[in-house]
Amino acid sequence: MLRKVSESLGISSLGLPRTRSLNEVFTSPRKSQPSSPIAPNYGVAYTLDRYLTNEGHKLVASYFRLNQTQKYIQKGALHQITERELDELIKSYDGVTTLAFETLNYHHLCLTLAECKLTAKLLKYDVVTNIRTLNLSRNRLSGSSIKVILEVLQKNTTVTFLDLSSNALSETESKWIGHLLKKNKSIKELSLAFNRIGSDGARRISKALKINITLKRLSLESNRLNAQGGLYISDMLKVNRTLKYIHLGSNNLQFAGIQGIAEALRVNESLISLSLDANNIAISGSKLLADALTINKTLTHLYMPRNSIGDEGLKHLCQALLLNTSIIYLDVEFNNIGVHGNTEGSSVLGKLLENHVAPRAINLSHNPIGNSGCEALFVGFHKNKTLESMVLSSCGIGIDGINAIAKALKLNQGLQSLSLYKNSEIGADGHLALAKALEQNTNLKKIQLDYNFDDWGAVGHLIQRYLTRNLFLQQEKYNVACQILKAARIMLNTPVYHTTAANKFNFFANYRRSRSIRSNISSKSTKSIVVPSPFIVSFMYLPFEIQERILISIDTNQVLTEHQEIIILNWSMRNDTLGKSKVEFLTKIFGAYHPLINDVRLWPTEFNEKDALVCDRF
């Protein structure tokens, strides 16, 4: 075995005697070593040097040792290696272009100062190690332990994602973070969530971000920023032009801080996602944000859970969205909407969804909307074609509310995902009403239900079957639309080829024959007609009505409407549509583009708590 390893490494044996073979070293029993009562026994690595006299075998042993050091680094077992071993490993990478440590996931390891210094050395030789992602969350880092890493990162050119969440960072450490953001030119995503940075720390970070031009994502969730910290952040957002995602949840920004954020939204043109969870926004704060949304045209995702905005706050937001078409996702869960049977907020939101294109996803979970609120929300929902997802978990919905939803779903053509989890009053009749609605609905692909009644299997399988049908039907619609577009682009815009005399004779013979069946070609029944190749070559000679029917015949299963087919043909004939994306094309054809993702659950009979928590906002 050793000979094969040596040959694979290009090492030839010198023929010198060995005191002990490698096989003997690995197979012979080792004497037990008493573990120290102070330091834990992490295992003792094999020391091969003292058993080897052959130079080639020493090279093999060196290779094994370097490989072992690399594995320790990848696993985060930095206590197993020394600084000398790390230096040897880095030296061995000289001239190697492959990524050595693209991702270092040192989550929840309680790193010591010595281990942080080893990590800093890895970051120092960035050209060699090529570290892109560095996760140091939940390590209780502070003081010198984090300082040694942040100082090295100032000159690092490879790390793009840095996670320092759930440590012990305070206002003192924020000074070093500020220096990092001023000098580093590679970090694009930074998470500082669940620390103690405070308002003074927000001032230092905001000052640095006024000149930083690379950071795109920042999480400051739960950092005790308070109102003053919110004002510092708002001043930064008025100047910064690169930050796109910011998470300010659980910072008690209060009215003054929200007022500053709202003012910043009026002039900021880069931010697309804003999280303001649990910040005591209340009705007054929601009005400030709503007024800002009438001016801001770039923000697409707004998260406002746990802020007690109530029905009045929701009305302010809906009135603002009538003048805003950019908001895609709105999260207002846990906001006391519908308390004491109030339906004002639900009614205004229902009218917005009936006549407007925004938002495309909304989360209303954990609001006591009830049956009356649900009826007001869905009274005109059958007219909506753009809302893709709605979450109504834990909203106190019963059979009357479900009947209103089922009635709207029979005619709605846009909704893709619906969550009705934890609405215990739905019962068997409610589930059956939804199943009957899905028989006519061909768009819904995902639904979350409790199935909290006896013998739910039959209804559950029926719902699963309709969801599966809808998924494959939508996929077929997209494919057929693209196929018709490709054929139309080629056949309607390609110059007529020169044909031989025989082909010309065949063409005119086919053309005369086509005139006799022209009336039949105009109907859908000619989808099975096979067109000869000369007919296709001289396609441009045919009257446009016949060309149109031939192209439409690609839709063999008639999954597209006549209106959609005409739009496709018009799109293919226009020069200004050349170079447009697939998303733009499908959006034009179907009114809204609902992407087909791979992780769509066809049969979601069980609920996953992770689906309800919008925690991945960073």
Automatic annotation (TrEMBL):
<dbReference type="GO" id="GO:0005634">
    <property type="term" value="C:nucleus"/>
</dbReference>
<protein>
    <submittedName>
        <fullName>RNI-like protein</fullName>
    </submittedName>
</protein>
<dbReference type="InterPro" id="IPR032675">
    <property type="entry name" value="LRR_dom_sf"/>
</dbReference>
<dbReference type="GO" id="GO:0048471">
    <property type="term" value="C:perinuclear region of cytoplasm"/>
</dbReference>
<dbReference type="Pfam" id="PF13516">
    <property type="entry name" value="LRR_6"/>
</dbReference>
<dbReference type="InterPro" id="IPR001611">
    <property type="entry name" value="Leu-rich_rpt"/>
</dbReference>
<dbReference type="GO" id="GO:0005829">
    <property type="term" value="C:cytosol"/>
</dbReference>
<dbReference type="Pfam" id="PF00560">
    <property type="entry name" value="LRR_1"/>
</dbReference>
<dbReference type="GO" id="GO:0031267">
    <property type="term" value="F:small GTPase binding"/>
</dbReference>
<dbReference type="GO" id="GO:0005096">
    <property type="term" value="F:GTPase activator activity"/>
</dbReference>
<dbReference type="InterPro" id="IPR027038">
    <property type="entry name" value="RanGap"/>
</dbReference>
<dbReference type="GO" id="GO:0006913">
    <property type="term" value="P:nucleocytoplasmic transport"/>
</dbReference>
